[in-house]
Design goal:
Helix 11 runs parallel beside helix 12. A 6-stranded antiparallel sheet has the order 7-18-19-27-22-23. A 6-stranded mixed sheet has the order 9-8-13-14-16-15. The model has no long low-confidence stretch (mean pLDDT 95). Helix 7 links the parallel strand 3 and strand 4. The chain is built from 15 helices and 40 strands. Helix content is 22%, strand content 24%. The protein is α+β, with helices and mostly antiparallel strands.
Length: 735
């Protein structure tokens, strides 16, 4: 240790000889007696270039800690576009988009020394040898200097890059839309970074786990910085193209809603400039939402579902129980939940800036200016905290806040060292007292409480916070809760591929539960429920991948007592429609020239005719059926059974709507009549089968074209068409 200390650099003994360096690089210095190391430090570009970009658009990345450079870049890029579009024609040009940060970090900028001194109160120049791996002062002090650098870089990236882009965009009547995270060297703090943007967004992919941290990062930033919308780049994808369709997207989209997303941005829509190339241009990293995709013409039912969900989830404020403080270290892309939150509760991540500037206490809850609130704040298991922040946390507890976590031991910064450490120890001792996480796990302080050494469920029980949404065992159901003044909105999603019956307890009392179906737009009462203490239990049935909104709005008049009443009455099959079916394919899409008779419903890929087997596009199924009577029911559904990929229904020439997800049915009660009925089902599949079919043809005979085609001649075909069974179902729901 003594030998190591002999290598430490004493910052007081360093000499700044910058003035002795001539412009040509010659050093003129009368060297004092002794052994000296001459260290020259300068700022140079990192050499990082922007990507992805066309060759014409490639160049060095700009300084992300310079508002001046941000403005220069804006003027050279967006500004050029603005000069070419008259102001009166800019109605749809509203946002500048900054995608996920993927360009690495930086550690210096022009004027950084001055900014650093103003921020921390000491000169960073004597500490620059730390950048070369040397120790200045001590290992602890050197690490504190690096902490200060990283923290300041993170803040400047947020304020000067995002804030600077917002500032110059506003000058031109534009807002910025930002994904508040990054990979491969993200240099900032995700919450503060997102807080400087007008709109904040996450990202999730149609398959896989990408989005597992990004969405909560985005929703937390939006919630703590008072933004009502939480966007998501939605259904980004990789691998095989064109095989996805709305039913395959629903479960993942519903999961995203439970992460706080309420503004869906479909990814990706390509304008398709080549009118004679099908399926056309594709990106290779997105779901193909565009006019040349086979099912795009029927996708309104899917888009309407997303719109209804977005609308509902933009109402009121999110209901959150816990704020997880992410700590002050930087850079940081997401928070840590330790201890983990049990099922049935919700959380946000929160940062030091919001705690210090915005958080207050009201009626025992930590409250933000726009009304979002938390019952508890969890501190990370870190040994450091700035005294300024610890003072604010102490004051919040004194006013009634509850915190869970260990006391800090010292400041992370070299600012006001070592006095800051002494203050941290003093405040921590005052706040935690004799709480040691062992024999003593909590104490009251002022109106609030400090807890340490408990798991989350025990801590929540200690302050009498029951789960917001509780199930006995079914862990495949996820939820999110929004609250207006006298209305509670819960969104539930069955993330399993099986039908389930659940009896969840909602943390609501005194109001009538209603079922709102975002697939159909239908609203009805749920007559069977029980109320106990703070919660209302409601029996609910969910089909595979199904979702519901359960809304508590109107006062309870009375609960149903009739044994024949049910929230989900038994559905009765009263007619199976067997055909025969006349099926018309589109000759322009290389289907059969004349209608084909299907005696039984079959998967197109199982048929020998290549014009059907490899068909991609829309086919129309027509048949007739007779009804001697119509059941006395308030709902009569036409259920298609198995269909791929999406369908639209007409009964007796009347549009009855589209089906795209479980339970694959549409209400046709108004369209049916006694006697002969005509049924028309328009089915669209995907491009997959035609792309594979064309690969089995000579190149001169292939008519499909796309720039990213991952298929091979022997790739498996995708099940297509109406497979059924098709039947009519009656059910009486309580109104």
């Amino acid at each position: 240790e003594s030998q190591n200390k002999a290598l430490y650099i004493d910052p007081a003994k360093e000499i700044n000889i910058t003035k002795n360096l001539s412009p040509d690089g010659t050093l003129n210095w009368n060297v004092p007696k002794g052994n000296w190391i001459i260290l020259r430090t300068g700022m140079v570009p990192t050499g990082v270039t922007n990507a992805p970009a066309a060759p014409e658009g490639r160049g060095l990345e700009i300084d992300k800690m310079s508002k001046k450079d941000i403005k220069k870049h804006f003027n050279a890029f967006i500004g050029k576009i603005l000069t070419r579009i008259p102001a009166k024609e800019r109605k749809s040009f509203r946002f500048v988009v900054a995608d996920s940060y993927e360009t690495g970090s930086e550690n210096w900028t022009n004027g950084f020394t001055k900014i650093f001194r103003e921020h921390y109160g000491y000169n960073p120049l004597p500490w620059l040898p730390v950048f070369t791996g040397r120790i200045v002062g001590s290992a602890d002090q050197s690490n504190r200097f690096l902490w200060d650098v990283r923290r300041l870089v993170a803040d400047l990236i947020a304020y000067d890059y995002v804030g600077g882009l917002r500032q110059v965009s506003h000058q031109h009547g534009l807002k910025i839309w930002l994904e508040n995270y990054g990979h491969w060297g993200f240099p900032s703090e995700f919450l503060k970074y997102g807080g400087q943007s007008d709109e904040v967004s996450g990202e999730f992919w149609a398959e896989g786990t990408l989005g597992s941290i990004e969405l909560k990062d985005a929703s937390s930033a939006a919630h703590i910085y008072g933004k009502s919308k939480v966007w998501a780049e939605s259904f980004t994808a990789a691998g095989e193209a064109f095989w996805r369709y709305p039913a395959l997207l629903k479960k993942r989209g519903d999961w995203a809603f439970t992460q706080g997303i309420n503004s869906t941005l479909l990814h990706v829509f390509i304008s398709q400039p080549y009118e004679d190339r099908y399926p056309g241009v594709n990106a290779g990293f997105g779901t193909e939402f565009n006019r040349f995709n086979t099912w795009f013409g029927q996708s309104k039912v899917f888009v309407d579902y997303m719109r209804r969900c977005n609308y509902m989830l933009q109402q009121g404020k999110p209901v959150e129980d816990v704020a997880y403080f992410i700590g002050e270290d930087a850079p940081v892309m997401t928070g840590v939940r330790d201890p983990e939150l049990p099922a049935g509760y919700s959380f946000d991540y929160i940062n030091a800036e919001v705690i210090e500037k915005s958080l207050s206490v009201k009626n025992g809850r930590l409250v933000l200016p726009d009304g979002v609130s938390y019952r508890m704040m969890v501190l990370p298991k870190l040994k450091t905290m700035r005294p300024e922040l610890l003072r604010k946390i102490r004051d919040l507890v004194k006013e009634g806040a509850v915190i869970l976590g260990p006391p800090p031991k010292r400041s992370p910064s070299l600012h006001n060292y070592p006095v800051a450490d002494q203050e941290v120890k003093r405040i921590a001792s005052e706040l935690w007292g004799n709480v040691d996480g062992g024999k003593v796990k909590y104490r009251k302080y002022g109106k609030g409480m400090v807890i340490m050494g408990m798991d989350m469920q025990a801590a929540l029980n200690k302050i009498n916070i029951v789960p917001d949404f509780q199930l006995a065992s079914e862990d495949s159901v996820l939820f999110i809760h929004r609250k207006l003044l006298n209305t509670d909105i819960y969104f539930l999603t069955n993330q399993s591929d099986r039908a389930i019956n659940i009896n969840p307890a909602f943390r609501v009392i005194g109001r009538q539960p209603e079922l709102w179906d975002a697939v159909t737009g239908e609203i009805r009462n749920l007559p069977i429920f029980t109320q106990n203490g703070e919660r209302t239990s409601v029996p609910i049935k969910m089909a595979p991948s199904q979702s519901w909104f359960v809304v508590f709005d109107k006062p309870v008049e009375k609960t149903a007592s009739d044994n024949d009443v049910s929230n989900f009455p038994k559905e009765k099959d009263f007619l199976q429609i067997k055909g025969p079916w006349e099926v018309s394919f589109d000759p322009k899409m290389r289907g059969p020239e004349k209608p084909v008779i299907f005696r039984e419903l079959e998967d197109w890929t199982k048929l020998p005719e290549k014009s059907i087997r490899y068909y991609s596009g829309t086919a129309v199924y027509r048949t007739k059926f007779n009804l001697d009577s119509i059941p006395n029911a308030n709902h009569i559904y036409l259920n298609l059974g198995n269909v791929s990929a999406i369908a639209h229904i007409k009964v007796n020439g009347i549009d009855a709507g589209g089906v795209w997800t479980t339970p694959w049915q549409v209400d046709v009660a108004k369209e049916l009549k006694i006697g002969e009925n005509q049924l028309e089902v328009e089915v669209a599949n995907t491009w997959v089968n035609r792309l594979i079919g064309d690969l089995n043809l000579p190149k001169t005979e292939r008519k499909t074209w796309t720039n990213v085609d991952p298929y091979k001649p022997d790739s498996p075909l995708e099940s297509s068409g109406l497979m059924g069974p098709v039947k009519l179902i009656s059910v009486n729901y309580s109104k």
